[in-house]
Amino acid sequence: MQGKHQAIIVAGGSGSRMGGNVAKQFMELDNKPILVHTIEKFLSLSFEVEIILVLPADYKEYWRDYCFNNRLTFRHTLVSGGITRFHSVKNAVKYLRKDTITAVHDGVRPFVTKEFLEEMYKDGEERGAVIPVTSPIDSMRIKLKRGLTQITDRDLYYMVQTPQVFRSDILIKAYDQAYSPQFTDDASVVEAMGEKIEIAPGLPMNIKLTRPEDMMLGRAILSVS
Questions:
Q1: Residues 6+ apart with CB under 8 A from 13
Q2: First CA to last CA across the chain, in angstroms?
Q3: Alpha-carbon span 45 to 204, nearest angstrom
Q4: Regarding beta strands 101-106 and 164-167, do their DSSP bridges make them parallel or antiparallel, or are they unpaired?
Q5: Could you tell me the pTM of the whole model?
Q6: What digits encode the pLDDT tens for the residues 73-114?
Q7: Is 23 among the domain residues?
Q8: Is 168 in contact with 129 (CB distance < 8 Å)?
Q9: Separation between Cα atoms, residue 186 and residue 161, nearest integer Å
Q10: How are the residues of the chain apportioned to helix, strand and coil, as percentages rounded to the nearest 5?
């Protein structure tokens, strides 16, 4: 019997790299690709999650070989990424059922915890469209013309993380829209069709590994976890 929880794990559309020859989602932390760390968090949950994995088209064979060589066996649907994150998720949404709770998560956020994920699924089921946020701790300034800046009130802003969790019928309907450059995440797509976005407390360690210095921080987190 199919479960009621699905996850779209977005691991790149064009195979972006972190200054090297390997796509960032396949760079290794503790002798294991970042992406595998992320997937294992979803596989550790107390309920079954059906995973839809979005990869750059030219990395799909690389992934199949990795799974075979490392005896990584779990059922998942493999989907080709698109030219933007919107198009990548849109490709994956085709595999959603209309009666599930779906988390959309960055493949390069490997430090989510089991407890955090389960709480986000619970919130998504209760509220329909929920995103995790944290408050900025640094002072913030707004860019003006001619290279000038102006101080702003950081209490007016949130930093948005993933997983962003939705009832799948909401997500399916949202991604039926035409693309807009204003779609920076799944919440912005859902909000554009008039759906209310709820917020939940984010996880400070739920960082996104996109720069070389992030890898240093990631290794430090692993060393104390």
A1: 54, 56, 81, 82, 83, 84, 85, 87, 88
A2: 35
A3: 20
A4: antiparallel
A5: 0.94
A6: 999 999 999 999 999 999 999 999 999 999 999 999 999 999
A7: yes
A8: no
A9: 11
A10: 35, 25, 40
pLDDT at 20: 58
Which amino acid type is present at position 138?
Answer: D
Q: Which domain holds residue 167?
A: 5-130+159-224
* pLDDT tens profile 115-141: 999 999 999 999 999 999 999 999 999
Give residue-wise pLDDT tens across range 11-66: 975 545 555 577 889 999 989 999 999 999 999 999 999 999 999 999 999 999 99
Does residue 136 fall inside a structural domain?
A: no
Tokens at 197, concatenated: 């976005």
CA–CA separation, 79 vs 91, rounded Å?
7
Alpha-carbon separation of residue 164 from 60, 168, 225 (angstroms): 24, 12, 24
For residue 54, give both structure tokens. 């979005």
Q: Domains in the chain: how many in total?
A: 1
Sorted by sequence, the CB contacts under 8 Å of residue 102 that are 6+ apart come out as 5, 6, 7, 8, 96, 124, 165, 166, 167, 168, 171
Percent pLDDT > 90 in the chain is 85
CATH number at residue 85: 3.90.550.10
Query: Cα 32–102–67 angle (5° rounding)?
Result: 25
Going from the C-alpha of 13 to that of each of 7, 48, 88, the distances in angstroms are 17, 26, 6
Q: Residue 137: inside a domain, yes or no?
A: no
